Amino acid sequence: MPEKTHTPKFKLAIIGGGLAGVTLGNALIRHEHIEFHIYESALEFSERGAAVGLAINAQRALHRILPQADVTLERTGGVPMNSTRIMVGTGQSIGHLVFDLAGTDPGIVIHRASLLRELLAPLPKEVLHANKKLASINERENIDARGSIEVNFTDGTTTYFDAVVGADGIFSTVRDYVLREFEDKKGEYRASPAGFWDCRHLVSLEKAKAALGEQYFELDRQYGWVNDGAFIMHDVLENGTIVQCVICAVEKDPPKDRKRPLSREFFEETLGRSLESAHTRGMVDLILDQPSPHCYSEWEHKATPTYANGRVCIIGDAAHATTPWQGSGAGLAIEDAMVLGTLLGAATSPAEISAAMKAYSDLQRPRCQSVIDSSRGTGDILCGRHHEAGLDPDKLKEALLPRWDHIYGIDFEKHESEALKKFECIKQERQ
Ligand SMILES: Cc1cc2nc3c(=O)[nH]c(=O)nc-3n(C[C@H](O)[C@H](O)[C@H](O)COP(=O)(O)OP(=O)(O)OC[C@H]3O[C@@H](n4cnc5c(N)ncnc54)[C@H](O)[C@@H]3O)c2cc1C
Question: How high is the pLDDT of residue 144?
C-alpha cells in the first residue's frame, strides 16, 4: 500500500475478510483520502471450501481494481478452463454432448485459499484485524471528529467510523442493520433454501484419473453431466495438480442446519438411475473418500429491497447470496468492490458517503438479483428438470447457452460511468 501522504478525510470499516471485503480493500488502497480497516471474526483471514471459478466478468472487474491482476492471478496457481463440456449423464441420450464451449475468454479455476492469500498480499498488516467479530452498529446523534458510526465488537471494544461496509457473508449482521426499516418483511428478505444441495471434494489428479477415466483429463477442461435430478462436474486447479469433484442435486426437504451427512445409501436413494454410469459411481467414490463427508443445502437471497442505508451498505454474499449454478457469486462480489471503490473514491467528504452508497445500491442491486434468479433457473436445467429440455441434448443446449450472456456481456466502463452519473444526480437532488 502506498504511504498515505494526506490526512485521510474519512474512515471506513469493512466487516468481513472474505473475498468481498478483501477485494474492496484492494479497490480502496489507491484513494488517499480513505482510511479503511477490515475486521474478520475468524481467528485468521482464511477461506474455507474448495475452488472458485472466476469468469471473464470477474477477471475484467479485478483488472480494473488491480493493475497487476495478471500477476495476482498467476500467483494463485489458477488454471484457465480452456473449454467447458456439458454432457448427458443418464437416460436414453447418456454420453451425448450438449455443448462444448471453447471460448477465447476462459474462466480461471482457483483454490479459494490461494485467491484470498494473493488478495491479502497488497494490504498492509495494520488494516487487517482478525478475531474481531462485529456485535452491533449504532448511528450517533452527536457527530464529532470521531465519526458518525459506533461499531461494537463482541470482545467489548468500540471503534468509531464515518461509514461501514458489511462484507460479512450470507447471514450478515450488517444486512440486518441495513434492512432494519423492513422489519415486517424480515422473513422474505432472509436467506432461504433454493431447492438444491451440493457436495464437493478436492483430490489429486492421479486419483481423479483413476476413478473417472484418463480421457477426461487430456485438456484443462471443465466437465459437467446433466442427470435425472442431479448434476455432476469436475474441474482442475492448483497448476493442474488438483481436481475439484462436485455432485449437486435437487433437494425436497432441506435440513434446518443446511448440512447433511453423506453415505453410499443416501447417494443410492437420491441419484437413482444416474448411478448406471461408471463415471457417476466413480464420482461418488471420490466424494465419500474424505473424513466425515457432508452435503450442504444451497441458500440464496430471494429479494433485497436495498443494499444501502445512510452510511452503511452491504456487498458480496451479505447483499446477494446466490446458488453456485452460474459460478457468479464471487464475480459479483468483485464487481461490487469495483463499483463501490470508484464511488467512495469520488466522495470528497463524509457527507457524500451516503449518496455514493445509494448509487452503488441502485446500480448493482438489479444486476445481482437477476443473476440470483437466473442461477436458480440454470440449476433446474442442469439437473435435468427443465419442463421442455429434460435430458434431451439439443433442447438442453438451446436452453443453456444464452443464460450467461447477461453476466459476461457487461461493459464495465459504461457501468462505472453510470454509477458516477447516479452519484452526481443523488447529490444534486439532496442539495
Ligand atoms: C458451493 C459454492 C460454490 C461456489 N462457486 C463459485 C464460483 O465458481 N464462482 C463464483 O464467482 N462464486 C462461487 N460461489 C460464490 C462465492 O463463493 C461467494 O459469493 C463468495 O465467496 C462470497 O464472498 P463474501 O466475502 O461475500 O462472503 P464470505 O466468503 O462468506 O465471507 C464473509 C466473511 O465475513 C466474516 N464474518 C461473518 N460475520 C462476521 C462478523 N459479525 N464480524 C466480522 N466478520 C464476520 C466471515 O468469517 C467470513 O470470513 C460459490 C458458492 C458456493 C456455496
Answer: 64
